[in-house]
UniProtKB/TrEMBL annotation, chains A, B:
<feature type="domain" description="HTH crp-type">
    <location>
        <begin position="154"/>
        <end position="223"/>
    </location>
</feature>
<keyword id="KW-0238">DNA-binding</keyword>
<feature type="domain" description="Cyclic nucleotide-binding">
    <location>
        <begin position="51"/>
        <end position="140"/>
    </location>
</feature>
<keyword id="KW-0804">Transcription</keyword>
<dbReference type="InterPro" id="IPR000595">
    <property type="entry name" value="cNMP-bd_dom"/>
</dbReference>
<dbReference type="InterPro" id="IPR012318">
    <property type="entry name" value="HTH_CRP"/>
</dbReference>
<dbReference type="InterPro" id="IPR018490">
    <property type="entry name" value="cNMP-bd_dom_sf"/>
</dbReference>
<dbReference type="Pfam" id="PF00027">
    <property type="entry name" value="cNMP_binding"/>
</dbReference>
<dbReference type="InterPro" id="IPR036388">
    <property type="entry name" value="WH-like_DNA-bd_sf"/>
</dbReference>
<keyword id="KW-0805">Transcription regulation</keyword>
<dbReference type="Pfam" id="PF13545">
    <property type="entry name" value="HTH_Crp_2"/>
</dbReference>
<protein>
    <submittedName>
        <fullName>Crp/Fnr family transcriptional regulator</fullName>
    </submittedName>
</protein>
<dbReference type="InterPro" id="IPR014710">
    <property type="entry name" value="RmlC-like_jellyroll"/>
</dbReference>
<dbReference type="InterPro" id="IPR036390">
    <property type="entry name" value="WH_DNA-bd_sf"/>
</dbReference>
Length: 235, 235
DNA sequence: CCCAAAGTGGTACCTAGGTACCTGTTTATC
DNA sequence: GATAAACAGGTACCTAGGTACCACTTTGGG
């Protein structure tokens, strides 16, 4: 892509905002963007590890879920929801053994893509990137450790309350990132099934913690939600 | 520690074997070991993130479990079992937010320790370490992703069978790393409770997949175990 | 060597959460 | 705008797995 492209400033801004590239200089980003191609994914399009192993992606807008599934039972577990500034797949970038993971667009997704080899070359040209990658991986590892143990250490109701709290914007008190998602997707995020989520949403409405209108969850009572998430809520 | 120490050759050998240090030169390892102190942990001694945040550890011998727990219920989930050549805590090394994790010795544990700051300095002197750390983190992340989704995607029996298969030595057909562990600890590894493990061990004995003698599990029939792990076993 | 106390494993009972079935709601087609 | 098809959510029923209780086995102190 050349710098006279219509969306060039918007793309540069998206790259600048990425925590993955946070220590990179402007000219390095220019050089990177010049090698990239823009692509649109319609909602619900998905790829697996094979498909994305040879291309590295930056998200410009939209949401993408990263999940594993059991084809025999149809159960899914969503590990991350990625959005603006996030990248995938970091593991392929590191040349680890292929890991069968799926990526699926939750909305219309705008990505910038670059061949994996070129991305590796670019990183080697800017050694400061190694530190950035390490801290990115460290953060993700910590998140993964929590996700890994959450399912066994806490009940589904507690996990649902914690999920809502994690995604509330401090100022607007509105849900971010996970708003507008059907019960299906919420279930995947806490490692359970849709019907259990539905049941718990009824319960949370009943105790006045939330209200639901047109597929949007509104938090009504933070204190109750906190009490549930911290397992202080005696039903 | 000076190079005239009795166990010096054994320690050097342990460091050489570590995948974390695999690309390091002999003199770099000497320099590292010179700054280290040996320490023994008796079985069942444990530390949390606070305790180990300021010291970096290398395991020389023995096994160490890394786990999270819910103090309200007493449930525990073991994330990793570390042994000879493994290191902890990598996340503290990266200066990420403290993560409340516990470490507990499963046997008598021999570690080499070094102040965290000195470890950071040493790494910065040997830039090849950055790549080693990245690939170490990548591998662990992949493992964590599997652990995170296993609990929701597979039943406890399937997870137990898979755990046994993962720890069988290809040649001797004996269990490694997890042998000799009480049902308690096995339960922590697959994210369930001791009683469920006990019940499943009865079941596996009944179908002839394993036998148990003096707290040691012996795999009798790999095919049956594989069928269960791959969910092809119709009970 | 005896006894207490801690450690380990087995199992009956019960409940959290999963399956299956249903109703209502939105989107696409002619 | 009518109708089908896909999508979304609610809930009765049932089972996998957790709790609680027991019995046996090992360890350590006098």
């Amino acid at each position: 892509m050349t710098s006279d492209h219509n969306d060039y400033p918007r793309y540069i801004q998206a790259l600048q905002q990425s925590s993955f590239l946070k220590d990179s200089k402007a000219e390095a980003l220019d050089q990177l963007l010049s090698q990239m191609t823009a692509e649109q994914w319609r909602a619900k399009t998905f790829r697996n590890s094979m498909d994305v192993a040879t291309t590295f992606h930056f998200i410009v807008s939209g949401r993408l879920k990263v999940y594993k599934s059991n084809p025999d039972t149809g159960r899914e577990h969503t590990v991350f929801v990625l959005s603006k500034g996030d990248v995938f797949d970091v593991l392929s970038l590191l040349d680890t053994e292929p890991n069968d993971v799926y990526w699926e667009a939750l909305d219309t997704l705008e990505v910038l893509k670059i061949p994996m080899d070129q991305m590796r070359l670019w990183i080697n040209e800017y050694p400061v990137m190694h530190k950035a990658i390490i801290s990115y991986l460290g953060e993700r590892m910590q998140q993964l450790m929590n996700i890994a143990t959450d399912v066994t250490l806490h009940s589904t109701l507690v996990r649902l309350a914690a999920l809502l709290l994690k995604n509330i914007n401090g100022e607007t008190r509105k849900l971010e990132l996970i708003n507008n998602l059907p019960n299906d997707e919420i279930a995947g995020l806490i490692g359970t099934t849709r019907s259990v989520v539905s049941r718990h949403i009824q319960e949370l409405k009943r105790v006045g913690a939330i209200s639901v209108s047109r597929r949007k969850i509104n938090v009504k009572n933070l204190e109750v939600l906190l009490a549930i998430a911290e397992e202080k809520h005696l039903p």
